[in-house]
TrEMBL record:
Taxonomic superkingdom: Bacteria
Short name of any one Pfam family annotated for the protein: DUF4478
Domain Pyrimidine/purine nucleotide 5'-monophosphate nucleosidase N-terminal: 11-114
E.C. numbers: 3.2.2.4
Classification lineage: Bacteria, Pseudomonadati, Pseudomonadota, Gammaproteobacteria, Lysobacterales
InterPro entries with a match to the protein in the record: LOG_fam, LOG_family_nucleotidases, PpnN, PpnN-like_sf, PpnN_C, PpnN_N
Molecular function in Gene Ontology: AMP nucleosidase activity
Ranges that cross the membrane: none
Catalytic activity: AMP + H2O = D-ribose 5-phosphate + adenine
Protein name: AMP nucleosidase
Residue intervals of the Pyrimidine/purine nucleotide 5'-monophosphate nucleosidase C-terminal domain: 334-454
Enzyme class: hydrolase
Gene Ontology cellular-component annotations: cytosol
Species, as recorded: Ahniella affigens
Amino acid sequence: MSTYETVNAKLHALGGMDILSRNEVGRLRDASGNLLALLKRCALAVLTSGVESDDPRAAAERYPDFEIRIEQQDRGLKLDLINAPAQAFVDGQIIKGIHELLFAVVRDIAYVASDVQSGRFDLTESNGITNAVFEILRNARILKPKLDPNLVVCWGGHSIARHEYSYTKTVGYQFGLRGFDICTGCGPGAMKGPMKGATIGHAKQRIKNSRYIGITEPGIIAAESPNPIVNHLVIMPDIEKRLEAFVRCAHGIVVFPGGVGTAEEILYLLGILLHEENREEPLPMVLTGPTESKAYFEQIDAFLKLCLGETAASRYHIIVNDPAMVAKRVDQGIQKVRHHRITGRDAFFYNWSLKIDESLQRPFAPTHENMRSLRIHRDLPKHELASELRRLFSGIVAGNVKEEGIRAIEKYGPFEIQGEPEIMQALDALLASFVAQHRMKLPGGSAYQPCYRLIK
């Protein structure tokens, strides 16, 4: 039984929530299926928004008696919350933003189960995956066809120092002053800061209907609950579709300090931009942080140059301690994106022309065998090596914060990773710095135990 305060509540769908069919409601309510457990886990993550924890099992342990039930009535959809976290309520009424995000959870889980994973799309080939990502975003009303390019995707760690978090807010403020909307992974740290800063910039410019988009996936939402600023939440089926959603929607990408998840995102984007068919793609990518983070970016830069060469380094800019310059550089890049989309007759709201190799789209299961089989050698084409390195970091993310990854580590021990000695040496130094700087897990818990072992 929970020792934390709980509330029972019945919630009706807010305006804009699609009515579900009886079949969809039946599948979501089926206690014998996986969807109900998935819905419960994601809903609890939304209801505990703001809790500083990256343990995916913590919320379930705090609220073991939490239940969620779905009812389809003549007036529309209704959620019945039992023993829900009281922090999501004020004077007995659920906070409106949390109310909205709860129904976003229901919407996405139902849509993916009924439309995406039911055979409507061929998820074994590239175009089918891209079409599925598009349909999920369209169903979530993320795609806005009448807007000029203005969406900046911000990546960075959930576990960052206070001065780094403050810097992300200042950069977000500069974006807000220029009318840019913000998209992040929806969690705390560098995912929250840019949104918080942008709200002030938007307010000063009297900009209404600003978009603060959070894109997540079921395996990570429990460890990175949506922050309170998010007003558009999308739950993609897996990390690969989440990453594709970021890149297809983005008009510019900014990377703040982070850990292995941030390294995964950088390598995913470089794996795309290094593909021969994307040579003319103008998508701007800026790595930035405060003065204290200069060494961090120098180490990331050195690792990328060692593995992928100078061509990869030419696809990003590093700007230290200059938020206004970051915003100006991204603004300049977005103008090039706009021109490129017009001349190429591509949509502003979804980058159809970007070539994404299937190796970056196929879900990677971070099992011990798959991690041991990664090809980490510089004789691979650069975009393929970037893809392999992306999988490596994705596996470490799973071992750090995803429930199934944590359980696999507890059962079988650390992942074993092998590859070219020079890369392994550089990787060892990079990961060791992440551990030393508390970028693997939020501070305050038990000492970090690596979920990996490098074989040189």
